[in-house]
Specification:
The chain is mainly alpha-helical and about 150 residues long. It has helices at about 15-35, 40-50, 50-60, 65-85, 90-110, 115-130, 140-145.
Length: about 150
């Protein structure tokens, strides 16, 4: 049976302790998969082409727009897939957290909190993933190395 620290609350149903201990690591995989849905936004950028993305970046003040466009497309496709798989997890999660911070605070904050809420939430989740790494069910763990 899993041991709990004295400061943690006692389980109402102690028989579930082993289940919760097992499910905790699996739940982290689910968080990585769910946040990896960002790949959808990246794929839209790929399908639309880099030119309109670069134009948007330039209009928003991210110059050179083409470099920022390629970075966003790369992070939102390759980076998001790597976070899902748990490969180079800390690097890509940190980079995506920075991207989300730029989107939230530079682009969306002037329009109010309601507009920046989603990017801010994604950024915080990516930051938490960057702090923890890939976890036990990740390619980082399988290869025995992480950043």
């Amino acid at each position: 049976m899993a041991r709990r620290a004295a400061s943690e609350p006692k389980l109402l149903f102690p028989g579930l302790a082993d289940f919760y201990a097992t499910a905790a690591d699996i739940s982290y995989v689910l968080v990585r998969v769910a946040i990896g849905s960002l790949v959808y936004h990246g794929s839209l950028k790929v399908l639309g082409g880099v030119t309109p993305v670069a134009a948007s970046m330039t209009k928003l003040g991210f110059v050179p727009g083409l470099a920022f466009a390629y970075a966003a497309i790369f992070l939102e496709t390759v980076g998001a897939v790597c976070v899902v798989l748990g490969l180079f997890t800390r690097f890509f999660a940190a980079a995506l957290a920075i991207e989300m911070a730029l989107i939230a605070f530079v682009v969306l904050m002037p329009q109010g909190f309601a507009r920046m809420e989603l990017a801010l939430t994604w950024g915080i989740i990516f930051f938490a993933i960057a702090l923890r790494g890939g976890g036990p069910y990740s390619l980082d763990r399988a290869i025995g190395k992480e950043l």
